Amino acid sequence: MIDLARERFTKNLWTERESAERPCLVTVRDEADQARFVAEEVLKNREAGMRLKEQAVLFRASHHSGPLEVELTRRNIPFVKFGGLNFLDSAHVKDMLAALRFAQNPRDRVAGFRVMQLLPGVGPSSAQTVLDAMADRPDPVAALTELPCPPRAAADWPGFVVLLGDLRERGAGWPAEIAQVRNWYEPHLKRIHEDAEMRKADLLQLEDIAAGYPSRERFLTELTLDPPDATSGQAGVPLLDEDYLILSTIHSAKGQEWKSVFVLNTVDGCIPSDLGVGTTEEIEEERRLLYVAMTRAKDSLSLVVPQRFFTHGQSSTGDRHVYASRTRFIPGKLLELFEFRPWPVVAAGQAGGTQARHVRVDVGARMRGMWR
């Protein structure tokens, strides 16, 4: 791959270790399947004796790992992320989840304390006063309509009360409820954060992740979030004797090696980044980044290729997805160097199941021709 670069230092990699295993190009339906594939492979490797620390998941941009972080959290797989804040630790994601948790359980003082302070004019003292008054009522949500609003929050308090009432009545149903919370939260997001547009993309991704859960209760339960203790925060430093999966941006992975490496979103628009294709020099730098990612692997390398990505704002005739093609850095003439692996693999005759999205075929000229 690096031999196709327009300019490069002459470097020919060699090894004394020989193996019949080739790097894998793994096709998955979307980012949700990508997350499930990586989680299952990581656990499979661990059962075979490979520690979590000996495995790494690499990605071009920090936000690419969002669905995977949710899946790892759901499965109780410990991980440490290098190069950006954890998706579930970001302030705006915590705010959204706090609103859902407070609607689910109005006696959750931690969630209520957080979400009330999103309103302008509501501080810790005002929020504490409201929560104390709600604790004495048999129906805390109904009590909100009767309690006087904080003096400096008169403009935004009615909308907050209406939101909680709608969520309690479940009129919209799931997952439309999380869209209700996002629509309520977006004006506050713009007021609180200067980079609101970037954070809004995370909220849309959270909404897409939530659609994969059958109910609000299941979504909140399986995430098993720790109570948020601040508006944001970095992940704590792990202990040396703990075992955890490595999640890292490619930039942060330079100089490191792991036995098994998974590279997420190996498609145009992600690698190369759609922001890094303005000039030939930028494209070649993106090529070098993918080269760095691929050469972090000692024994096993999987490049994951989602076929579609969730998007927002399409016309009514769209399916809320855009479709992606394999990265330009792996052209057809290099495909013979890879093993092709559609996922999930289902047996013939079982294509009607919920997980039946791909049927494995013999890897040969037919598959290579399709990928070209």
Automatic annotation (TrEMBL):
Its GO CC terms are: cytosol
Q: Which organism is this entry from?
A: Ancylobacter dichloromethanicus
Q: Which UniProt keywords apply?
A: ATP-binding, Helicase, Hydrolase, Nucleotide-binding
Q: Which PROSITE patterns match?
A: UVRD_HELICASE_CTER
Q: What is this protein called?
A: UvrD-like helicase C-terminal domain-containing protein
Please give the biological process terms from Gene Ontology that the record holds.
recombinational repair
Q: Name one GO molecular function term.
A: DNA binding
Q: Does the keyword ATP-binding apply?
A: yes
Please list the coiled coil stretches: none
Q: What Pfam families does the record tag this protein with?
A: UvrD_C
What's the source species' lineage? Bacteria, Pseudomonadati, Pseudomonadota, Alphaproteobacteria, Hyphomicrobiales
Is the keyword Hydrolase assigned to this protein?
yes
Per UniProt, residues of the UvrD-like helicase C-terminal domain are 1-255
Superkingdom of origin organism: Bacteria
